[in-house]
Structures are given as structure tokens and as C-alpha cells.
Design goal:
Blueprint: E1 2-4, H1 5-11, H2 21-31, E2 34-39, E3 46-58, E4 66-73, E5 76-82, E6 92-101, E7 111-113, E8 116-118, E9 121-123, E10 145-146, H3 157-160, E11 166-170, H4 181-192, E12 206-210, E13 216-219, E14 227-234, H5 243-251, H6 259-271, E15 275-279, E16 287-292, E17 298-300, E18 306-308, E19 314-318, E20 321-325, E21 329-330, E22 343-349, H7 352-362, H8 367-374, H9 381-395, E23 399-402, E24 405-408, E25 415-420, H10 421-428, H11 434-443, E26 447-450, E27 455-460, H12 470-481, H13 502-516, E28 520-521, E29 527-528, H14 530-533, E30 558-559, H15 564-576, E31 582-592, E32 600-610, H16 627-640, E33 647-651, E34 658-668, E35 671-679, H17 681-687, E36 692-698, H18 699-704, E37 721-730, H19 735-745, E38 750-759, E39 768-777, H20 786-804, E40 807-808
Parallel strand pairs: 12-23, 13-16, 28-31
Antiparallel strand pairs: 1-11, 2-11, 3-4, 3-6, 4-5, 6-9, 6-10, 7-8, 14-22, 14-23, 14-24, 15-22, 16-19, 17-18, 19-20, 20-21, 25-27, 26-27, 29-30, 31-32, 32-36, 33-34, 34-35, 35-36, 37-39, 37-40, 38-39
Length: 809
């Protein structure tokens, strides 16, 4: 909230006590809320004065410029060329003199405009730093007119409230009471122990007519609106607000509209109580109802947008037509305009959860909805409504009809909390006496009474709805006593050695293995689109992914069921920035629906590689990655994770997002634990990425699998013996089938089987291929004899002939 120092000073003797804005902000930051910024609207501006246009004539060489004579002091008149369409003789205006600094540090220089000398500039509010969002619409296309009593030559800053200092506070959700001047005054009065001079105004009613029979309100369920009151104001005149009111609004970041709307916004800032004014004569019926919306019901809101409502939205309806979205935005059909003469003024409290949900779903966050979401002070609902009626009488000459409609009024009770002085000192590490603690609660305007030598009973007023427990009162004591005065002590704790459990150790080892293989860790969102969530599942799920009721964006609506999709977005991000060689991995959780309210969470690990894994140099050429590179990474990873079971790679053509000829499912002891393969070219085109290879493993299966006891293998000191064999086999027979057959009959001394040649060609019979292998035999405790190796080799040859119909070449 943007808090005006001058507004605070109306209720607290800040200047009298020499409390400067910067010191005030620093104190708030140490005691109550964070501070985003402390600034004055006049910062960076220079030589801006009041001027009076005494004459003007059309520019001789332009159809839209005027040559103005502007009085800037009793004895000086300047000639200034101005193109504003609303320039008028006799108006007081903002003049930037020669040498002035305006918005964005632009310097005003003396010059000629189409041959006519111009000695300065007549300014619009936007040109001296006002945002487009807060500058009044009536002056959007022209210069700003100052009040008629402004004196030429004076600085313009006091006339526009630019000599104020704004403290931009950043509130935590629990301190909704600080979203008002009332809340800030109460807190600062307690912090500095100052007299609280907050002023209210009492409404004067027109006793000649009563509200009964002219307006009525019905609430279907008081749970959605625990407080709801209305007043009727007649015969008012909609006009421009006085300068003091406009200044308060634009210094708070709100655009002035007209006196009726501005008064509701003024009360919003002063009390933190949102109000809404209905044009009384535009209401279809004067019996209003606060109810849930009907599914599909439509409402055209003040911004001109047609909103389709849901059954859990809250609306104000008239003649069964929605005329406002409660707590969020009013309806266009009943808006206040220049022709309005009577208004029905609403003040209430609406269910904060429902307001938040409807505001978020419709993207209609506003100053009002923010306050309803964080809480409204039930003590000031009537007070805020009455003061708004007072100002409508004073500034819009409205007649306040006697009485008001009270459709719902909450029972306001102080919350009683008992605390112990001994416990306070134990928690805070202080040595405060009961009198010290009582004085802090007196400063907070909390009633307090002692129950015995150690206990105090504190009455917490409803305006501090964030205080519910003794711990909350400890915090109040600590912050008013001063966090900087609490002694620093080391925590007392047992001395125990920290460490990782087995699962944590292996998860960390998993990352280290992949980093050692040349992959870089990536972290992506666990939320994605429905389409991406359903891609690259290790085990395809029959159900849809878990959906968020209120996603933060359209790209983050569902929980991921695989990790690869997120990595492909990272690949696309890098590729778009000319990074051709990318090797990434991510280790994290996926969320698999299992029919319960919460999904099943599994730890997965995935990788994505494109380009080359090694940088080229004079001795090494750039080699693009292929299926065997990514398969080798997975192989090495599983070996380093000490997986003891049988790992198999089986060709898989069932995954639409992967290349049908370069994809394999990964089996551990016959159970699918993952996949490896090339991203399908059509999908790669969608992601705008080059040829990319990926893998994903269910890490839960890897962690729960049997482990090898030792990672090291004994190196034999005896010589190895090799035998080469070339086989002619059918095209359908895979390398894995041949290797499995060789190992099955290779005997105890067979240490390695390596494929060193593959041949397809015209010199072979149709549907045949030639594969050549090197078989390595070695014993750990002796030198092998020729006949032992030959016997083992012959068994392999015979077995290959018998089972695979292989022809030895």
C-alpha cells in the first residue's frame, strides 16, 4: 500500500515529534511490514511553477499550435508555444521554465517551434511523472489546470500533493489491517507511543423520508456475507472531486473519476473498507439479493467485459439479474455516471476464499478484492458507510435518507488470550516485568488485566484478526519492545553428528554419476500443460493428469507425469539462443493419479542430449550423439548405481512421441523401469529442436532393486585368450539374442563378448546379415590351456547353430 506521510501526519504528531519519513519507514520495516520504497513525487523535478495564461493566438504556421503569453510572476510573462487542445485564457497551468527537469530527467530548453520562440513548456500531469493509470481521464489529451487560487510563480508541488512523501509498504498476508490509514495510524501510535488522533465524521440524515420501503436487501446465506449494510443518498450532483481528495487518491495510486466514486475509494484507503455505489434509478428492482451465482449466468462488469459466472461466485442481484460481482467489481448496467442523481451505497464483508477464487479465475484483482481476501475489520463497516454518506452530503450535496439497511451484522467480540510473563521471557530471551508487558498492550490499545503474579489476560480487538494464540501476542511484545533490543544468544542443542540416510545418499550419488557422464543438472516446473503432462510416461496412465483448480497460468495447469517434456523445453530454450550442444538431466518427482485426492509421487531421473557430447579440436572431430551414446549413458548409470539384476533393452514402437526405429524400453529383471530413444522428428519440429535423444527411469525401481555388494572387479594377472567368430543370421535376429546365447554357453572363463563388425550387402543371401564377435576368455587363478578354450568355444558355435540357425563364416 502507498501510504502518505502527510495523511498520517493529520492524525499523528509526526512532524511535531521530528519523525522524518525515512526514519518512519525504517521503523516500520523493523517492526511491522516490509518497505518497497520511500519517495516523493517531486523527486527529480526542477523549476516547475504556477503560470497563468493571459492571452493566446493561433500559431501562424500551424493548425493546432497556439502562441501563449503566460504570467509566471508579478513582473514576468513568458511566450510559450503549446499544442494542447484545451489551452484557455485565464487558466492556471503547470509551467516548466527554461532549465527545468521533467519526467525521465528531460531538460527544457529555450527554442523555436516553427519559427516562433518558445520559452518553456505547459505541462500535462503525465509529463511531470504521473502514471497514465492515475492521471484523470478528463485531461488525458491536454494540459492540467491548477486551482484558480494558485499564485503565479509559486512551485506547483504543494498544489498537486507532490511535496508529500510516499511510503510504499509490502504487506504479509496476515497483516491485512495495514491496508488502511486507520491500521497504519493504530500501529504507528503503538510503535512510537503517540496519541492516536484518528478522526471520523458523523452523517447527518434527512429526517423527512425514511429508507424503509425504498430499499431492501435479502441474503440467502450469511456465510457468504457475514456483514452487509446499505444507505440511500438522493439528489446528489456528480462532479469533479476537490483537489485535496484527488491528491489523496493519486498519491495512493488510484485514478480520480468523480466525486461519488472518489469518495468510495477514499473510504477504502482510510478504513480498508471497500464500498460500492449502485445508481439507484438503474436498478431493475429495489429489492437486492446477495446470493451465489447460477452456473453460466452472465454479467457485464464495469470494464465492459462479459463475464460468465460459476455457481461458487457471489453476486448482488436485482430482479434476479446479477448487477455486481460481490467484492470484486460492479456491473456496467448500474454504474454511476454524470447523469446519476441517487445511489444505493453498499458496505459489507464477503467470504474471503470465494472472493479470491472468483477474482483469480476472472483475472479481476483489485484494491477491493485484495482487502476482502486478506480480511476486513468488522468494527468499522458501519462507521465507514456512515462517513462515506457524510462526504456524499458535503461534496456531492446529496441528501442522506434516514436509516440504513442492515441485512447482516457480525457479532464483534474481543478475543481473550491468557499469557504468562515467565513464558514470554523464556520465549523471547528477555527479562520484562509484568508492568513492561502491560504498557506494551496499552500502547496497542488492547485491554489487559492481571490474573495473578504471573498471568495476564489480554482482550484483542476485532481489528487485529491476525492475533489468535499466545504466540501471536509474544510477537507483538517482541516487535514493540524492539527486535534489536532482544539479546543475542546461541541456541542450546544436543551435539549429534549429521548425515544422510541411505536413500538420500543414493539420490545424491545418482546426480553425481550423471554429472560425471557429462550431463548438466536442470530444474524445471512440476506443473505443465495437459498435453505435455501425458507425453513420455514410463508406464502410460489410463487417467488424466492431476489438474489445478486455480493455475497461475495456462502453461501450468497440470502436474507432470514425466520429466522429459520439461527437459525438451530447456533444449528448445538453449537452441533458440544458438546453443547447439546441450546435455541435460533432471532428477525429481512425477505425480501419477491413482484415484485418491492426492496423486502418487515417484522419484524419476531423465536426460536429454542434442548436438555433440565432446568439443571438437585438432585431433577429435565433432561427433553428433546417436542412440548408442544415450544408451551407453544409461548403461553406465545403472552400472554405477550397482544394480544387480538383469538389464535388458527391448525395441519399442508403441510410443508415439519417440522414433519407432530408435527406441527401446528398459527392463530390470523383466519389469519396465524406463525408456531410451530419439524424440520423434514431428514432435521435435513442434518443440523447434534438432535431433534429440532422451531417456527416463523410474528411480524408485532402481533404488529398490538388489544391489551388488562390491563395485570393484578383481583384475586377473593371467593372460587372456580371444576367439573371433563371424555369423550369418536372419535379419530378424538381434544382437542381444546372439550375445545372450554366447554367454549362456560360454562357460565360466568367458569374460567379454564384443561386436566388431556388421555387414549387409549384395554378397549375402536375401534377408541375411553378417555379425562378427570377439570372445575373450580369462581365468583368475591360472593360465588357460588351448584345449579348454577350444572346448568352450565349440559349445558356443554348436549352440548358435542349433538355436539361431546361424551359419559360421
Amino acid at each position: 500500500m502507498k501510504v502518505s506521510y502527510q495523511w498520517l501526519n493529520q492524525y499523528l504528531p509526526l512532524q511535531e515529534k521530528h519523525i522524518k519519513p525515512a526514519d518512519l519507514a525504517e521503523k516500520l520495516a523493523r517492526t511491522s511490514v516490509d518497505i518497497n520504497d520511500v519517495y516523493s513525487p517531486m523527486d527529480g523535478l526542477k523549476k516547475l511553477v504556477v503560470g497563468e495564461i493571459v492571452s493566446l493566438e493561433p500559431h501562424p504556421d500551424s493548425d493546432h499550435l497556439n502562441v501563449c503569453q503566460v504570467k509566471v510572476s508579478d513582473d514576468e510573462t513568458l511566450q510559450i508555444v503549446c499544442g494542447a487542445p484545451n489551452v484557455q485564457v485565464g487558466k492556471k497551468v503547470i509551467v516548466a521554465l527554461v532549465g527545468a527537469r521533467i519526467k525521465d530527467n528531460v531538460k527544457i530548453k529555450r527554442g523555436k517551434i516553427r519559427g516562433i520562440e518558445s520559452n518553456g513548456m505547459l505541462c500535462a500531469l503525465q509529463e511531470i511523472g504521473f502514471s497514465e493509470k492515475i492521471a484523470p481521464k478528463a485531461y488525458e489529451a491536454g494540459i492540467w489546470f491548477l486551482p484558480d487560487d494558485a499564485k503565479p510563480g509559486d512551485d506547483v508541488y504543494p498544489y498537486l500533493g507532490m511535496d508529500d512523501t510516499i511510503i510504499d509498504t509490502d504487506l504479509t498476508p496476515n497483516r491485512g489491517d495495514m491496508l488502511s490509514i486507520f491500521g497504519n495510524v493504530n500501529d504507528l501510535a503503538a510503535i512510537y507511543d503517540l496519541p492516536n488522533g484518528f478522526k471520523t465524521h458523523q452523517v447527518e440524515e434527512d429526517t423527512t423520508e425514511k429508507i424503509e420501503g425504498q430499499l431492501a436487501v435479502k441474503i440467502d446465506d450469511t456465510a457468504i456475507a457475514p456483514a452487509y449494510e446499505m444507505r440511500l443518498i438522493k439528489n446528489l450532483h456528480v462532479a469533479e472531486s476537490p483537489m485535496w481528495l484527488q491528491i489523496k487518491l493519486w498519491n495512493a495510486g488510484i485514478r480520480p473519476i468523480n466525486n461519488v466514486v472518489d469518495i468510495t475509494n477514499y473510504i477504502l484507503l482510510k478504513y480498508g473498507q471497500p464500498l460500492h455505489a449502485f445508481d439507484y434509478n438503474k436498478l431493475p428492482d429495489h429489492q437486492l439479493t446477495v446470493r451465489h451465482a447460477k452456473d453460466g449466468e452472465q454479467l457485464v462488469t464495469l470494464d465492459g467485459e462479459t463475464r460468465e459466472l460459476k455457481a461458487h461466485d457471489i453476486v448482488i442481484s436485482s430482479a434476479n439479474q446479477a448487477v455486481a460481482l460481490a467484492g470484486t467489481m460492479g456491473g456496467e448496467a448500474t454504474m454511476v455516471d454524470d447523469q446519476t442523481t441517487s445511489i444505493a451505497l453498499e458496505a459489507g464483508i464477503f467470504d474471503p476464499v470465494m472472493v479470491r477464487k472468483q477474482a483469480r479465475r476472472l483475472d479481476l484483482h483489485s484494491e477491493s478484492s485484495m482487502r476482502f481476501e486478506r480480511g476486513i475489520n468488522p468494527e468499522t463497516v458501519s462507521q465507514a458507510l456512515d462517513e462515506a454518506a457524510y462526504w456524499l452530503n458535503q461534496l456531492a450535496e446529496g441528501s442522506v435518507v434516514s436509516g440504513k439497511i442492515v441485512a447482516a451484522k457480525p457479532v464483534v467480540q474481543d478475543r481473550k488470550i491468557v499469557i504468562s510473563v515467565k513464558r514470554v521471557n523464556h520465549v523471547l530471551g528477555t527479562a520484562l516485568s509484568m508492568a513492561n508487558i502491560e504498557s506494551i498492550f496499552v500502547r496497542l490499545d488492547f485491554e489487559v488485566r492481571s490474573l495473578d503474579q504471573d498471568q495476564l489476560e489480554v482482550d484483542v480487538p476485532a481489528r487485529r484478526w491476525d492475533i489468535e494464540l499466545p504466540a501471536d501476542l509474544y510477537e507483538e511484545i517482541a516487535r514493540l519492545y524492539g527486535y534489536d533490543q532482544i539479546p543475542s544468544t546461541l541456541p542450546s542443542m544436543t551435539r549429534t553428528a549429521g548425515g544422510l540416510n541411505e536413500r538420500q545418499t543414493r539420490l545424491r550419488a545418482s546426480r553425481h554419476v550423471l554429472e560425471g557422464l557429462g550431463l548438466t543438472q536442470a530444474i524445471s516446473y512440476s506443473l505443465t500443460t495437459v498435453e505435455q503432462a501425458k507425453r513420455f510416461e514410463v508406464e502410460p496412465q489410463p487417467t488424466e493428469p492431476m489438474m489445478l483448480d486455480y493455475p497461475m497460468s495456462s502453461d501450468h495447469v497440470a502436474t507432470r507425469m514425466s520429466i522429459v517434456s520439461g527437459l525438451l523445453l530447456d533444449i528448445a530454450y538453449n537452441h533458440a539462443r544458438k546453443v547447439e550442444d546441450v546435455a541435460l538431466y533432471e532428477q525429481g518427482r512425477v505425480f501419477l493419479p491413482d484415484g485418491n485426492e492426492r496423486p502418487k509421487e515417484e522419484e524419476h531421473v531423465a536426460g536429454a542430449v542434442t548436438g555433440s557430447m565432446t568439443a571438437p579440436n585438432w585431433a577429435v572431430k565433432r561427433t553428433p550423439v546417436d542412440f548408442f551414446v544415450i544408451k551407453g549413458i544409461v548403461d553406465t548409470y545403472l552400472a554405477n548405481m550397482a544394480v544387480a539384476g538383469k538389464v535388458e533393452y527391448v525395441a519399442d514402437k508403441t510410443r508415439p512421441e519417440l522414433h519407432p526405429g530408435r527406441t527401446a524400453k528398459i527392463l530390470l529383471d523383466g519389469k519396465v523401469i524406463g525408456f531410451v530413444g530419439q524424440v520423434h522428428p514431428s514432435l521435435a519440429k513442434k518443440y523447434k529442436i534438432p535431433e534429440t535423444y532422451v531417456f527416463e527411469l523410474n528411480l524408485e525401481a532402481v533404488l529398490s532393486a538388489d544391489k551388488r555388494d562390491k563395485h570393484y572387479v578383481h583384475i586377473s594377472k593371467y593372460p587372456a585368450v580371444t576367439r573371433d567368430i563371424a555369423l550369418l543370421v536372419d535379419q530378424e535376429i538381434t544382437n542381444q539374442e546372439i550375445v545372450d546365447a554366447i554367454k549362456r554357453k560360454g562357460g565360466a572363463f568367458l569374460k567379454d563378448v564384443r561386436l566388431f563388425d556388421v555387414y549387409h550387402g549384395i554378397h549375402l543371401p536375401g534377408n541375411k546379415k553378417s555379425l562378427a564377435y570377439t570372445l575373450t576368455y580369462q581365468a583368475n587363478d591360472t593360465t588357460l590351456k588351448e584345449e579348454e578354450v577350444n572346448a568352450a568355444f565349440d559349445k558356443v558355435v554348436n549352440y548358435l547353430k542349433a538355436t539361431l540357425n546361424a551359419e559360421i563364416r
